[in-house]
Amino acid sequence: MSNCCGSDKTEKNQTSCCAKDEAPANSNCHQEVTKPQTSSCCEPKPQSATSSCCPSDNKRSIDWMLLSSGTFVVITYALYLVGISGVSLTLPDWLNTMANTSFEMFNAMWWGLLLGIVFVGWLNRIPREVIVSVLGKGHTKRGIIRATAAGVMLDLCNHGILMVAMKLYERGASLGQVMAFLIASPWNSFTLTLILVGLIGLKLTLLFIAFSMLIAWLSGMIFDRLEMNNVLPMNPNKVDLPEDYHFRSDIKRLFKNADHSFSAYVDMIKDGISGSKMVMRWIFFGVVLVAFLRAFVPMDFFESWFGATSAGLLLTLLAATIIEVCSEGSTPIAADLVTRANAPGNGFTFLMAGASTDYTEIMAIKDTMKSWKIALVLPLVTVPQILLIGWLLNTFA
To answer: Domain limits at 281?
Structure first.
């Protein structure tokens, strides 16, 4: 099979299951290099097969946002560690606040980032047909329900979920399935649900879960309809299952031929890191922005304005949009809005708005799906639903 730079003889030796998972014939060279071409049912490709195509691929431009944001987090995190180690440092209050923010936020989200990297690397090695069959057929009610349920059950923070959701899009899930998975996921992990039960009670927690699943399902249906009517661009990675496809047979073959060597796991982690960079650049940038907000904008300004009123609900939405808070951090803040401000709708809005208006998610969607339209339609579809349910909770709960 020929590629963009000439004939690659190693491609001829791939098994048929790999051929299904290759990039389209008209894809460019860099797409073929960056998209993993081997699933676990195939032998690893020789290094020359990935390096001979376009030599310039090894000289990629530096991602200055990732580098600068990551450096900021590392330096401020180190300053915090130095400060608590007993070494006397005289730092201005604003720099201490930034160091505390980096320490707090990174400690809250590191495990989600790590698991997200593992999931992304693992998904690279799963044939698209398997993923599509698990999520169900795209552009169907059942497919949206399955994606919503998967989002609720997967125990990851919102940053890890974001990386997995973007990988599902690249592996062929429909736009509606990806959005349903992303919207249902951020705080609906088993661990955080138990914490929320302890903070606000079982009744409100169950209401929050039910309403979040409803928003995810309705939004998924809307996105699928917009995609089918060509209002939003179709997923170019879409995969249609053959009529004679058997999920169990494919899973058995996958596990039988899987490579469990140490080097295979190392390669999986490397792929996960590479595939997650696009999302991590915005996550670290979010930490930087929050550090500056906390250092120079008094938090009393936010705390005194969140009552169970229409204005308080809108201000909660605004705060959730501006403040980049990991799901572990959003849960206690939302609980505080319920108990102190007596505003359950505000608490629900704060939890849900992170997946709808957060700039990290919007920019990651734009970079992955190559569409500003999709990224901006996300808040247009979800925010009215969130505000309506928030108002109903404030009024009747």
So the answer is: 63-397
